[in-house]
Design brief:
There is one protein chain. The protein is α/β, with parallel strands linked by helices. It has 2 domains: 164 residues, 3-Layer(aba) Sandwich (Rossmann fold); 142 residues, Rossmann fold. Helix content is 31%, strand content 26%. It is built from 9 helices and 14 strands. The strands form 3 sheets. It has a 7-stranded mixed beta sheet, sandwiched between helices. A 5-stranded parallel beta sheet has the order 1-4-5-6-7, sandwiched between helices. Strands 2-3 form a two-stranded antiparallel sheet. The longest helix is centred in the N-terminal third of the chain and has 17 residues.
Length: 315
């Protein structure tokens, strides 16, 4: 592994260090800081000429700063003659803006793809995109990992299978929820909901499937303000669900998310650390599972030319 270099932006250095530890290599040395005029400066502090470079940077809060920082790091590596640059973006921001669903609006997920490519990224490694078609916005290879197997193993070990029903929080996530339900040998239910305008709130309308007397496990790609989660948990309670657990890949937890989760009757919220979860947000009912082994193994397979798909066939 002497030709591989893993670098970290400032978004999630703990995750980058955990990935480097998994690969048994030191984290790449670089200076990344912001001048008083808010201009970002990057300097790579070691030789990367003809090396296989990976930059780990989720587009978490502050989203725009972390995005620009990632672009500048990629540019610095390109100008330092790295052989291949892989942008490792565990959380891909702007994923919800993936189509023109209103007049005169942008497709920002495509714009971000273009920015990464123009900056010099040769490959993207990410986890659970909000919409699968985002892969098609890139003209470079995209490896999309999924955390469903990590989340599934956690709930398998809890022994809830006999009374469990997996609940997709909307129709868009139903395919992933179905895959998780199959892994847990549980039936599937789907929440039909409508998002109200451009506001960060949604109204749960109906539940398709039988949840009465069962332990419900809601599945989503991310929890942002937790408004949708509150509505879904309330709807499941009205339909007779005995207990409600929730899981998602990306714990964004913005705005009033933590107070809402604290007040919500959900028994446990299980997430991964694709984005950093601040100590002030770690409630007793929030469980954070490590994503570093999955990312580390994927990086190893990319570097050595092994199959990424086989990684999940073994899960």
């Amino acid at each position: 592994m002497d030709e591989i270099k893993v670098f970290s932006g400032s978004a999630h250095p703990a995750l980058a260090q955990a990935v480097a530890d998994y690969l048994n290599i030191p984290l790449g040395k670089c200076d990344v800081f912001e001048f008083t005029n808010e201009n970002i400066f990057v300097r790579i502090l070691e030789n990367v000429r003809q090396r296989d470079a990976f930059v780990i940077q989720p587009l978490s809060s502050p989203v725009n700063k972390n995005l620009v920082e990632l672009l500048i790091m990629i540019d610095a590596l390109k100008r330092a003659s790295a052989a291949r640059i892989t942008a490792v973006v565990p959380y891909y921001a702007y994923g919800r803006t993936d189509k023109k669903d209103q007049p005169r609006v942008p497709i920002t997920a495509r714009l971000v793809a273009d920015l990464l490519t123009v900056a010099g990224a040769n490959r993207l490694l990410t986890v659970d995109l909000h919409a699968a078609q985002i892969q098609g916005f890139f003209n470079i290879p995209v490896d999309e990992l999924t955390a469903l197997y990590i989340l599934g193993r956690y709930f398998e070990e809890k022994g809830l299978n006999d009374s469990l029903v997996v609940v997709a929080t909307d129709i868009g996530i139903s395919k992933r929820a179905r895959d998780l339900a199959e892994k847990l040998n549980a039936p599937l239910a789907i929440v039909e909901k409508r998002r109200v305008g451009n506001a960060d709130r949604a109204e749960a309308l109906n539940i398709i499937g039988e949840v009465a007397g069962k332990v419900a496990l809601t599945v989503d790609d991310e929890i942002d303000t937790a408004g949708s989660l509150m509505n879904v948990v309330e709807a499941l309670g009205k339909r007779g669900a005995r207990e409600v657990y929730s899981c998602c890949t990306h714990p964004i937890f913005s705005g009033e998310a933590i107070p809402r989760i604290a007040a919500c009757p959900v028994k446990e919220v299980v997430v991964t650390d694709t984005v950093p979860v601040d100590i002030t947000k770690k409630l007793a009912k929030i469980t954070v599972l490590p994503i570093a082994p999955l990312l580390g193994e994927a990086i190893h397979r990319i570097h050595t030319g092994l199959s990424i798909g086989a990684l999940f066939e073994q899960s």
